[in-house]
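Issue 218. Parser rejects a valid record. Input:
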Amino acid sequence: MTATTATRIAALRTDPALSSLHRSLDVYYGDPARDTRMDAFYSRFVGSGDLVFDIGSHVGDHIGSFRRLGARVVAVEPQPLCLRALRTIYADDDQVTLVDAACGARTGRTRLHVNSTNPTVSTASLDFVRAANGAGGWESEVWDADIEVPVVTVDALIETYGVPTFTKIDVEGFEDEVLAGLSRPLPALSFEFTTIARAVAHRCLDRLTALGFAGFDVALGDDKSMTFRRWVSATDLATHLDDLPHAANAGDVYCVSR
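Output the parser choked on:
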């Protein structure tokens, strides 16, 4: 992290208008050991000169990792406060393109259900909000506002920016809709899953298999460590996700095409 970037993040951490993002900024920035682990993990997918799509960027810590690895990044984020933070942090980086939109099955507009006190779980999926209601570990989460946001598809992003080497999808239960807007295999991608919405992960796996993805693995939580350490079938991965206890909560499925 450059001195200029650190100064900008410090200012964001004290900006009262961004109070709902202060915890995320504290967690995701300023931990060199975490940055090192993240960079080592993503280096198997991303190299210098590659193009990466970061769909659901939140406050942009993954953008930082992809940039340290030398990639160009197209970051898709619909939340106004998150976009304000991203524009500040990456203001001078012409290798980061910010797209003010959600990503979905078709272009247009959608309702984003905003969790004002914990924006990291804001979502375009009403089913996800319903699944969280009363679920263990989610009792304190409240989606207290709706905003209308534009929607772009992955296919449209490819048409505009090119084919990404790696695509990260983290959109709180809307991952299957994002993949519905992709009509071709990509070299590699990841999508978030949660134990309150396992059916979404199943739909994602079905879609990816149909597109030609053949190898799958999963990392739980924020731990950038693969579970199988080899590529397994979608069927084996689906069985593993179903067998996870509810307390596992969330993680990211990684996929490679044939």
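Fixed in the parser; the record now loads. Strands lie at 51-55, 72-77, 96-100, 102-103, 108-114, 145-152, 166-169, 188-194, 213-220, 250-257.
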